[in-house]
Structure formats: C-alpha cells, structure tokens
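Morning. Coffee machine broken again, so started the prediction first thing and wrote up yesterday's gels while waiting. Chain of 211 residues, entered below exactly as on the submission form.
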Amino acid sequence: MRATTTATILAASLLLAATARAQAPQSFRVISPVFGQLVSFTMPSNFSVVVENTGDGHYIREAVLKGETPERWTEMITVTGEKGMTLTPAASPDKFAGSIAGGFKSACPDSFAAKPFGAMTFGRFEGFAAVIGCGRVDSGPTRHSETALLITLKGTTDYYTIQWAERGPESDEPPVNDDRWQARLRALSPIELCPIVPGEAAPYPSCVNKS
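Came back before lunch.
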C-alpha cells in the first residue's frame, strides 16, 4: 500500500509540474532604442504595451497583463530612461534606486518596506536591484498594496530602470521577501544595454547576436 501511495504521489507531482510548465506564458526578447542605447530584456508574452512617452529627457514605457489597463492592473512591467544622467555628479545605480524607493516611502510612510539585492553587473554595465513596496496606497480604484522589483542600470550616457510591479490586497507590510521577486529577476534576464548601430532597424540583430 505504501509503494502504491508513493507512486501515486510521484505521478501527481509530475503531472502538476508538467501542467505548470504548459500554463507558464512564453517569453520574448524586447529590444528598444532609448536615448543613447538599446535596452534589451525578456518579457512574458502575456504582457502588452499600453503607454509609451518621451519628453524632457525622460522616457517611459508601461506594459500590463493583456486585458488590463493603465488605470486598472495587477501586474505592470515598466522601462524608463533618464537622458544624460551619467553627467550628474555622484550619480550611481544604488543612489538612483534609493531616490525611487524614497518616492515609494513618501507615499506610504507607515507601510513601506524594502529588500536590496545589491549591486549587479549587466554585461559590462553597472546596476542595482531591490524590491520596494507599499502595504497601503490609495492611488487607483481602491486601496491596495503595491510592490515592485526595481532594477537600475548605468549606461554610457543615460540611466535606465526596469520595474516589475504587482498590486494586491492592502497589508501592514508588502511582500518584499517573497521568493517570486528573485524568480522575476531571472525571468527578465538577460538584461543588456547595446550600442545603437546607425541604419540598423528592428529586430536589431547586433544586440540579438550579442547574447
């Protein structure tokens, strides 16, 4: 009886694992020119771009789960660029991340939390990663929590961020320690900055072939 039970459990576990793999969304490489460089990363195919704007040296592109909107969303992947920021005295990826975290904290001083992953290197470029969040925020249709994986990158002339945010029920503390943030960091990889080759168009083979 015990052998039968073990075999049954093993078969069920394998079936669940196969089902999870089948249900996991496929991913695709996203490569976009943002000011002085191409920003490249991997995005799940169940996201679609809903906002893209450039102005006054700032770039932003937001993608949400298909069927959601910029106002009502549960997950959002955001890319930003800050033109010429490498010329800012004392600028660094960790300080840039800290300034963004400060914006979160000012929105929810009583329920803010953060977990740094620390300094990282993406290709030959310096970066920093952390998870930051608010347990309770009032923006959007209802009060909710908002937590984000934040990646900052120092490019040749510009700074960039990639953020994967999630909204959930309000709480005293956002789930910054959850293992899924490390999994999402892996899911976005490889993250790279590539030079813009004059005359080269999408899909930017020089950057694709770099990996």
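The beta strands are 27-34, 37-44, 47-55, 58-65, 75-82, 112-122, 125-137, 144-154, 159-168, 192-195. Going to sketch it on the whiteboard this afternoon.
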